[in-house]
C-alpha cells in the first residue's frame, strides 16, 4: 500500500493529516492525489460519501494554493450548508500548518455581510453552496477571475436539488483556463452533461462500482403489518442499545411525529426537517454529532449532506419511491471504512420496492425477524451488566460515601445485591416486553387482520379508495379535506379524488401506488382530540355503504396488538431505559424543549391547535 509520504504532498500537509489521525490514504486518495499533483488536469471522481473524497481533492488543492497571496484561487461548490461547513473544517485542518491560510464558507441562512467581510480579508479557498454563491456574484462581492481550480462536490445531489442553472452561472463566471474536478456518487445524464460542457479530457477515478451501495453496508428488511411499524422501530432500537442511527421518513409531518413519539417514549431522539429554522437544525445536528441524540428522524431533503461518521443504523421507516434515494440514505452509514446496517421496515406490499432497490444496488437484502420481547430483554440485560462491569469509577469522589453504603447493604449477599441492582433498571423493561406480541408478518404476506391493512380483502394490489372517520361533523368539505389530507400526507391536494364527505366519515381515492404512503401518514393522527381511523374501502362507488361496514368491523381488533405495544409505553421514558439510562437529563421532553427555541414552541402549538 502507498503511504501519504509517497504521494508527493507537501510536508506541512502530511504533518497536518497525521495529527488528524490519517495514517494511510484511502483508495480514492491513492488514485487521485498522485495524478492531480503531477499534471494539472480536469478530473471526474465517482465516489460515495465516506470514501475520503474530501481529502482526495482537498489535499492537492491545499498543495497548490499560494497562501502568501490573498486572492481566491480555489472554489468548491457543494449542495448543502452541512457539507459546506464540513468541507471548510476539513480543508482548514489540512492547511493548518500554512501561515495566513483562510478557508471561507459561503452558505445561505447566515449573514451575508459577515461572509463578505471574511472574503474581503482574503480567502484563498472558498467553499460555497450554489444559491448563496450566485447571490454573491450578483452583488458583485466576489472576484473569481484568478480561480485556478473549481471543485464540484456531490454533483448529482446538486442537480437533484435543482441547482443546474446556478451551477451553469457560477461556472461561466470562472476563467476558461482552470481545472475542474467533479465528484459524484452517480453519473446521470445531467452530470455527464456538465462534465462534457465544462471539462476537457478529464482523468476518471472510480471507487467501488458506480451506483452501488458501499460494500460494508448490510441491507436488511423486517416485514411487519403497516400498523406495527412504530412498534417495530422501537424494537429495533431496544435490541441495539448502542444504536446511533438515522430514521428516514417520507414527510415533514411524519418525521416530526415519529420523533415526538420516540421522545415521549424516552428515547434520545429528535427530528430534522424543512420546517425547522436554520438555528434549530444546527442545534439538532450539534446534539446528534456529539451523540446526545441517538436517533435522528429526518426527511431526505433535510438529511442531504449529513456528514457524521459512525452512524450504525440507517432505518427506512418508509422506503423511498426512487431506488436512487435509498442509495443516498444507506450511504449515511458505513463511512470511513466502518461497517453499518441499512434497515427497511416494510409491509407486505412494499416488497416490490425492495426488489427494485436490490436491482439498483446489485445487492440482496436479508430478510430478518424482529426479536421477541424475551430476546430484547436478554440483550438489554447483557448490555446493562457490561455497562456496570466497565463503568468508570471515580475513586476519590466515591470514597467518602462508601462506609455509609456498606453499612446499608451489609445484610445482602453478593448474589442478592447483583439481583437487586439489575432489577432496579431491568424490571421496567421486563414489564414492557412481558407480553409483547410477535411483530413479524407472515411470509406469504397474510395480514392477521386484513381490515386494518390499506389493501383490500383478498386483493393482491393496494386499492386507492379509502374510508376515513372525518366528515361534515368535523367541518370538512371537499376543499378543507383536500387541504388537510395533503398536509398530513405530503401529497398534492389534487392527488385526492372522488372525495365523498358524509356526516361523520368520508371516502376518497388516491392513486393505488400512493395508498400505502397515505395509509401510513394518517397513523397516530388526531383531529379534535379524536384518533383518526383510516381504512381501505374496496367499494367502487362513492355512495357505497360498504366502507361503513368495514369501519364498524375493524374498530377494536385492528389496533389491539399495536396499542398494547405502544400504550404500555405510557410512563414516559420508563420502559426505554436502554437509552434513558445513559443520560436521563438529556432524554425525553427535556432534551427537546431545552433544545428548541420559542418559535419552535409556537410552531408546535399551532400544529397542535390545528390537530386537536
Ligand atoms: P469523506 O468521504 O471525505 O466525507 O470522508 C469520510 C471520513 O473519512 C471523514 O471523517 C474523513 O476525515 C475521514 N478520512 C478521510 N481520509 C482518511 C484517511 N486517509 N484516513 C482516515 N480517515 C480518513
Report a brief summary of the structure.
The chain has 25 helices and 20 strands. It is α/β, with parallel strands linked by helices.
Q: Tell me the number of strands.
A: 20
Question: Could you say which overall geometry the principal axes of the C-alpha atoms support?
Answer: globular
Alpha-carbon Rg, integer:
27 Å
Q: List the strand order in the largest sheet.
A: 3-4-2-5-6-1-7
At CATH level 3, the topology of the largest domain is: Rossmann fold
Roughly what fraction of the amino acids lie in strands?
5-15%
Q: What proportion of the residues is helical, as a percent range?
A: 40-55%
Q: Which molecules are bound in this entry?
A: adenosine monophosphate
Quaternary state reads single chain
Amino acid at each position: 500500500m502507498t503511504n501519504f509520504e509517497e504521494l508527493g504532498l507537501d510536508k506541512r500537509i502530511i504533518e497536518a493529516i497525521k495529527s488528524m489521525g490519517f495514517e494511510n490514504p484511502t483508495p480514492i486518495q491513492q488514485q487521485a492525489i498522485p495524478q492531480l499533483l503531477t499534471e494539472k488536469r480536469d478530473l471526474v471522481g465517482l465516489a460515495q460519501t465516506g470514501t475520503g473524497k474530501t481529502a482526495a481533492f482537498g489535499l492537492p488543492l491545499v498543495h497548490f494554493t499560494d497562501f502568501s497571496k490573498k486572492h481566491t484561487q480555489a472554489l468548491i461548490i457543494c449542495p448543502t450548508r452541512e457539507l459546506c461547513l464540513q468541507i471548510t473544517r476539513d480543508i482548514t485542518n489540512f492547511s493548518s500548518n500554512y501561515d495566513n491560510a483562510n478557508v471561507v464558507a459561503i452558505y445561505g441562512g447566515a449573514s451575508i455581510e459577515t461572509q463578505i467581510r471574511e472574503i474581503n480579508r482574503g480567502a484563498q479557498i472558498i467553499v460555497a453552496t450554489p444559491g448563496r454563491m450566485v447571490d454573491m456574484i450578483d452583488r458583485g462581492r466576489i472576484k473569481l477571475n484568478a480561480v485556478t481550480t473549481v471543485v464540484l462536490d456531490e454533483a448529482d445531489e446538486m442537480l437533484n436539488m435543482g441547482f443546474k442553472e446556478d451551477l451553469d452561472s457560477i461556472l461561466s463566471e470562472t476563467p476558461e483556463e482552470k481545472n475542474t474536478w467533479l465528484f459524484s456518487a452517480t453519473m446521470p445524464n445531467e452530470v455527464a452533461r456538465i462534465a462534457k460542457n465544462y471539462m476537457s479530457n478529464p482523468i476518471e477515478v472510480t471507487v467501488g462500482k458506480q451506483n452501488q451501495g458501499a460494500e460494508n453496508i448490510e441491507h436488511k428488511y423486517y416485514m411487519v403489518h403497516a400498523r406495527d411499524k412504530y412498534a417495530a422501530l422501537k424494537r429495533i432500537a431496544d435490541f441495539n442499545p448502542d444504536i446511533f442511527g438515522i430514521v428516514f421518513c417520507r414527510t415533514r409531518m411524519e418525521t416530526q411525529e415519529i420523533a415526538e413519539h420516540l421522545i415521549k417514549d424516552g428515547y434520545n431522539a429528535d427530528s430534522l426537517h424543512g420546517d425547522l429554522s436554520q438555528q434549530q437544525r444546527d442545534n439538532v445536528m450539534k446534539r446528534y454529532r456529539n451523540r446526545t441524540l441517538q436517533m435522528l428522524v429526518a426527511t431526505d431533503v433535510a438529511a442531504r449532506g449529513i456528514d457524521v461518521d459512525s452512524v450504525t443504523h440507517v432505518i427506512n421507516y418508509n422506503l423511498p419511491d426512487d431506488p436512487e434515494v435509498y442509495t443516498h440514505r444507506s450511504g449515511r452509514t458505513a463511512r470511513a471504512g466502518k461497517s453499518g446496517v441499512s434497515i427497511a421496515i416494510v409491509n407486505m406490499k412494499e416488497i416490490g420496492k425492495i426488489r427494485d432497490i436490490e436491482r439498483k444496488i446489485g445487492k440482496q437484502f436479508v430478510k430478518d425477524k424482529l426479536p421477541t420481547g424475551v430476546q430484547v430483554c436478554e440483550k438489554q440485560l447483557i448490555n446493562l451488566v457490561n455497562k456496570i462491569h466497565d463503568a468508570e469509577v471515580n475513586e476519590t469522589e466515591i470514597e467518602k460515601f462508601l462506609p455509609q453504603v456498606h453499612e446499608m447493604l451489609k445484610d445482602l449477599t453478593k448474589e442478592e445485591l447483583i439481583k437487586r441492582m439489575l432489577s432496579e433498571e431491568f424490571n421496567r423493561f421486563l414489564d414492557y416486553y412481558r407480553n409483547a406480541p410477535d411483530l413479524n408478518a407472515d411470509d406469504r404476506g397474510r395480514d392477521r387482520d386484513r381490515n386494518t391493512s390499506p389493501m383490500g380483502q383478498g386483493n393482491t394490489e393496494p386499492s386507492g379508495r379509502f374510508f376515513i372517520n372525518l366528515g361534515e361533523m368535523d367541518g370538512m368539505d371537499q376543499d378543507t379535506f383536500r387541504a388537510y389530507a395533503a398536509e398530513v400526507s405530503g401529497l398534492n391536494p389534487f392527488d385526492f379524488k372522488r372525495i365523498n364527505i358524509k356526516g361523520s366519515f368520508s371516502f376518497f381515492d388516491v392513486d393505488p401506488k400512493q395508498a400505502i404512503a397515505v395509509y401510513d401518514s394518517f397513523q397516530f393522527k388526531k383531529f379534535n382530540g379524536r384518533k383518526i381511523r383510516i381504512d381501505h374501502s374496496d367499494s367502487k362507488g362513492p355512495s357505497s355503504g360498504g366502507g361503513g361496514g368495514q369501519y364498524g368491523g375493524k374498530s377494536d381488533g385492528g389496533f389491539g396488538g399495536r396499542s398494547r405495544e405502544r400504550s404500555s409505553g405510557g410512563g414516559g421514558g420508563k420502559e426505554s431505559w436502554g437509552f434513558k439510562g445513559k443520560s436521563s437529563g438529556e432524554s425525553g421532553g427535556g432534551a427537546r424543549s431545552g433544545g428548541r427555541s420559542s418559535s419552535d414552541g409556537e410552531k408546535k402549538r399551532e400544529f397542535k391547535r390545528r390537530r386537536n
